[in-house]
Amino acid sequence: MGILLFGVAKDIAGTPKMDLPEHITDVGALKQWLYNHYPALMQLSSMMIAVNRSYATDGQAITAADEIAVIPPVSGG
Amino acid sequence: MGILLFGVAKDIAGTPKMDLPEHITDVGALKQWLYNHYPALMQLSSMMIAVNRSYATDGQAITAADEIAVIPPVSGG
Amino acid sequence: MDVLISIKETITVQEALDFIQSPECGGEVIFTGTIRNHTKGRGVVKLFYECYEAMAISEMHKIADHVKAQWDIKKLAMLHATGDKYPGDIAVVIAVASAHRGIAFDACEYTIDTLKETVPIWKKEFFEDGRD
Amino acid sequence: MDVLISIKETITVQEALDFIQSPECGGEVIFTGTIRNHTKGRGVVKLFYECYEAMAISEMHKIADHVKAQWDIKKLAMLHATGDKYPGDIAVVIAVASAHRGIAFDACEYTIDTLKETVPIWKKEFFEDGRD
């Protein structure tokens, strides 16, 4: 399923969608990978990862079969 | 101008309007006169008197030239 | 603060919305009170709202003055219906517009709470069982 | 509790009012969020709302579940608009109906506050001065 990027995270990465990098098996490692490749993401006041449409904690395991999303600070309403 | 009666106070007195009784010169005396003549008014959880469209305290002076109103518990909304 | 105060036979939510609409405001809170088909377990046929109109308008303006003094509210509409009202009919509409939603909630709740305490309007209930 | 949750290009207050209308309820509280013509002192041309729709719908249902668990609310409508929105347009409508107004205010404020914290929707602002 790969990774969906929204809002300013999409602007920073320059793409709305990417594949899950190889060797990344949990949310914490994905966040670290994202910060390494797109350092501007560190300037966000928060960056949540959603797995299969629910907010996930760093320890949550992920595979290429999951729907993963990068959620910068929301601003609906 | 006389006395206007509303809601259940009107029902108890049996009239929407009456003249200010003679010798009544303040709000407290009027309340006492009303309780004497219509004892059922004492069963209301509150009975306010308005003078010229504002709630009045017992000490407020009244004359036949004032617009006086008997205000049982309100229940708007 | 712009204020719309009205007491009349029929009121609508739309007229309150139209009045408070402003591109300067980001948050609007609206309270509507409608006639229920039961109260304290008894079926309601209708309500009759009686009003001491001149004083009611005056008391509603006092509430508006308090809202203006307490909060940075841009628009306030207070509408109350009179006469015979049936289940589903609207009895009261309070609508508040502000740049910030928190105070809009506070001001709207204050307005309806105070209206129910101070504004000389009375409802008479007519029940299905015919008793008072 | 009956729930209406919707995310779409254009939303109206009326559809929320129609949904929550019930002769069983006496008090309705409605919050509407509209596009302001300025923010932090800068003129706003438009906003663009982006949405992770499947998750947003899921998070809105979680909010509804919390409302249902906390308060005796009969009806809850949560509508959010997407796409380009201009000053005066409606971005969000929350509408709550209950037999008692106090909890309707609480539930409505909780719903909009939580929606703004958890639902994956993002607004991008376009300013008159052309800068980001």
From TrEMBL, chains C, D:
Molecular function (Gene Ontology), one example: molybdopterin synthase activity
Superkingdom classification of source: Bacteria
Q: Which GO terms describe its biological process?
A: Mo-molybdopterin cofactor biosynthetic process
EC identifiers of the protein? 2.8.1.12
Q: Pathway involvement?
A: Cofactor biosynthesis; molybdopterin biosynthesis
> Does the entry feature the keyword Disulfide bond, yes or no?
no
Under Pfam families, the record lists:
MoaE (PF02391)
> What is the annotated quaternary arrangement, including any partners?
Heterotetramer of 2 MoaD subunits and 2 MoaE subunits. Also stable as homodimer. The enzyme changes between these two forms during catalysis.
The text of the family note is: Belongs to the MoaE family.
Q: What is this protein called?
A: Molybdopterin synthase catalytic subunit
Its source organism is Chitinophaga solisilvae
